[in-house]
Every structure is written in structure tokens, then in C-alpha cells.
Amino acid sequence: MARIIALVLGLAGLLIAYTELRSEPKFFYGEDCEAENGAQSDVKGEVSGVFLSGEAGKKVAAQLTCAERVAAFAVYAKAFEAPVGTLFDWSAKAGSHGTFRITWDYENQGLHCRDFMRTDYVRKQRYIEQGAACRQSDRNWHFH
User: Fold this and answer.
1) pTM to 2 decimals?
2) List of E strands, 1-144
3) In the chain, what are the domain boundaries?
4) Distances in Å between the alpha carbon of 79 and those of 9, 38, 46, 91, 142?
């Protein structure tokens, strides 16, 4: 009987560990950032990941290097979970920095979506962009 209980407790522990691994945020920084896409994020907690896709994603990819995206996406993930209007700042080692704010929260075809405003200062250039992202079935935010 003790062996059965130990087996059940062991399986329960594996299930909990598997669930925790699956809930870690995931980030897709773009096809040009292969090394960064496989890197572990240091973002912990109740945030979901961010996937670069769609027109908004193309703008981010055109303006930010892979290293800058890593710094920015950690902040974007937090912002997507925060109340509308909360301003978040990001900065990268190269001196690039920016802000990110959710401006609207809504449902679209059964998906939870959020509009955002981002301002980035990269290589002495200022970029101001509006965009949208929706939480997909994988629990990650995908740019549109």
C-alpha cells in the first residue's frame, strides 16, 4: 500500500512540475532572432508570452534588434497583464529604450485583445506606433 501511495504522490509531483513548465511565458522575437527565440526568459509570475507576428510585429522587427526585442518583450508581457493605461518602461544595454501602454481592452471573435501604444528611442530615432495583440489559445499574446 505504501508503494502505491508513493507512486501516486510521485505522479502528482510530475504533473505539477509539467503544469508549471507549460505556464512559463514564451517569447517569439521574430524569425531573424533564432538564438533569442530559444533562450529562457527571466520573466516569472502570472504573465504569458509575446509572439511577434502581423503588421504590428513587422514594425517592431524593422525597428528593434533582437537584443532590444528581448528587453522590450519582457516589459510587453507584463503590460499585457496590467490594467489599461499603466505605463511601462524598457531599456537595453545599447542605450535603446521605450515605453509601452495598453490603451484598450476588448473581445474580438472570442479572443481577449488589447490595443497598445509604444514609443521607442532606438539609434537616435524615435518611433511611435499603435497596434493590437490578442491572447490566442496557447495563452500567449500575438501581435496583429
Assistant:
1) 0.71
2) 27-28, 50-51, 87-91, 97-108, 111-122, 125-135, 141-143
3) 25-143
4) 37, 22, 12, 15, 14
